[in-house]
TrEMBL record:
<dbReference type="GO" id="GO:0046872">
    <property type="term" value="F:metal ion binding"/>
</dbReference>
<dbReference type="InterPro" id="IPR032466">
    <property type="entry name" value="Metal_Hydrolase"/>
</dbReference>
<dbReference type="InterPro" id="IPR052349">
    <property type="entry name" value="Metallo-hydrolase_Enzymes"/>
</dbReference>
<protein>
    <submittedName>
        <fullName>Cytosine deaminase</fullName>
        <ecNumber>3.5.4.1</ecNumber>
    </submittedName>
</protein>
<keyword id="KW-0378">Hydrolase</keyword>
<dbReference type="Pfam" id="PF07969">
    <property type="entry name" value="Amidohydro_3"/>
</dbReference>
<dbReference type="InterPro" id="IPR011059">
    <property type="entry name" value="Metal-dep_hydrolase_composite"/>
</dbReference>
<dbReference type="InterPro" id="IPR013108">
    <property type="entry name" value="Amidohydro_3"/>
</dbReference>
<dbReference type="GO" id="GO:0004131">
    <property type="term" value="F:cytosine deaminase activity"/>
</dbReference>
<feature type="domain" description="Amidohydrolase 3">
    <location>
        <begin position="90"/>
        <end position="403"/>
    </location>
</feature>
<keyword id="KW-0479">Metal-binding</keyword>
Length: 418
């Protein structure tokens, strides 16, 4: 069955206004594409690839609203300690319920791809098993990559005779696609470096991707990023490796940063910045000037180093807000990174679409190319600038040529007559 979507502003195509889809695949982009079994009018709205949330903790969803725990200091490390106790009382059924609702929230805003950072420092791997089941149950509607993430450390965690490292490997064998890590939460620099080397070795051994919570601290002496980059380069898997957060790199001196930027250009390492959560978490020990926890996003963009944005958290112990709407994340991120020159607006949407797809290594199935799955969203805006300026609402989401949802445009019930 052929479907033709007409009267759209197609992202990345200067003159195309129509999309031809057959059997769930893109057939052609252009004008006057001929007859079709069904014609859908896009009403002049902007059409872009689906949002990609490259970093989200689905298993933590809404636990910030529970009565049992409260992060009094608002810091990263108190949140980790509180979660360690809270998760022990969570069943797989409860985990699955949280994860499914988080996914539903994200999909309702136009996200179709999620990298789910899922805690595996639990001898029963409760969250991992829940996330893998949800991934498989919802695969026709959303693509989820599950990260085996040792929240309490690869080596600084041990329970029931199992280290975090042991549990990471168990999670990979269960089917997780990505090896995670958190070197700055290990007990020493030496142990943190050891964890990175093991992360890379596990990725090679099991043929997995890598995504490390790396240097999520204001401490300029936290330089696990350079170790991760070097180890990934040595093993030839830099393009399959992502460094998330890298907050301390935003505080490092320019001489060090200049050297590292050259290495990142060479390695093709991917970066994920989490603008809302890190702006909230970082700088807690600063008076003024107060750091905002952002890595060098502007410099990455200007130097063609792949960087994208993610939500990170939705109302949990780390972050008290969030709703899964990546347009809000983009708006905050481009303000903090000062990506608001005229030339920036034409490509800023890449930070929550194509750049995220590159970090997830899904370019073969993602984007506006003939033969790829017909996945896209329609925004309530005529062009990129208006979409970003107005935080445009996602009016519809299409997966394999079929609507996941459609919304009517907002209208005044009583017309505004000025």
């Amino acid at each position: 069955m052929k479907k033709k979507f007409i009267n759209g502003k197609i992202y990345g195509y200067k003159d195309a206004t129509e999309i031809l889809v057959e059997d769930g695949k893109f057939v052609k982009f252009g004008k006057d594409l001929g007859e079709a079994d069904e014609v859908i009018n896009l009403d002049g709205n902007l059409v872009i690839p689906p949002y990609v949330d490259a970093h989200l903790h689905l298993d933590y969803y809404m636990i910030g609203k529970t009565d049992e725990v409260k992060n009094e200091s608002g810091t990263l490390f108190e949140a980790i300690d509180l979660w360690n106790d809270f998760k022990k009382g969570s069943t797989k059924k409860e985990m699955k319920k949280r994860i499914r609702q988080a996914v539903e929230d994200c999909v309702s805003y136009g996200t179709q791809y999620i990298r789910a950072q899922t805690d595996c420092t639990d001898p029963n791997l409760t969250g991992i098993k829940a996330a893998l089941e949800v991934r498989d149950e919802l695969k026709d509607k959303v693509t989820i990559q599950v990260v085996a993430f040792p929240q309490n450390g690869m080596y600084s965690y041990k329970e029931e005779g199992k280290t975090g490292r042991d549990l990471v490997e168990e999670a990979l064998e269960l089917g997780c696609e990505v090896v995670g890590g958190i070197p700055h939460n290990e007990w020493s620099r030496e142990i943190g470096e050891k964890s990175i080397k093991e992360i890379v070795d596990l990725a090679v051994k099991h043929n997995k991707l890598i995504d490390v919570h790396c240097d999520e601290t204001d401490d300029v002496m936290a330089r696990f990023l350079e170790v991760l980059n070097a180890e990934a380069m040595i093993k030839g898997i830099s393009k399959k490796t992502t460094a998330s957060h890298t907050c301390s790199f935003g505080s490092s001196d320019d001489s060090y940063a200049f050297r590292m930027m050259g290495l990142f250009r060479k390695s093709k390492l991917n970066f994920v910045s989490l603008p809302t959560e890190n702006a909230f978490l970082q700088g807690r020990q600063d008076t003024y000037p107060k750091r905002r926890g952002l890595t060098r996003v502007r410099e990455f963009v200007d130097n063609d180093i792949n960087v994208c944005f993610g939500q990170d958290s939705i109302v949990d112990l780390w972050y008290p807000a969030g709703n899964g709407n990546l347009m809000n994340i983009l708006d905050n991120g481009i303000h903090l990174a000062q990506l608001m020159e005229e030339k920036d607006f034409g490509k800023n949407l890449d930070l929550i679409t194509y750049n995220g797809a590159k970090a997830l290594c899904i370019q073969d199935e993602y984007g506006f190319d003939e033969g790829k799955p017909a996945n896209f969203i329609v925004l309530d805006a005529p062009n990129e600038f208006e979409a970003i300026r107005n935080r445009a609402e996602c009016l519809s989401s299409v997966r394999n040529g079929e609507f996941l949802f459609k919304k009517a445009k907002r209208e005044f019930e009583v017309p505004l007559n000025l």
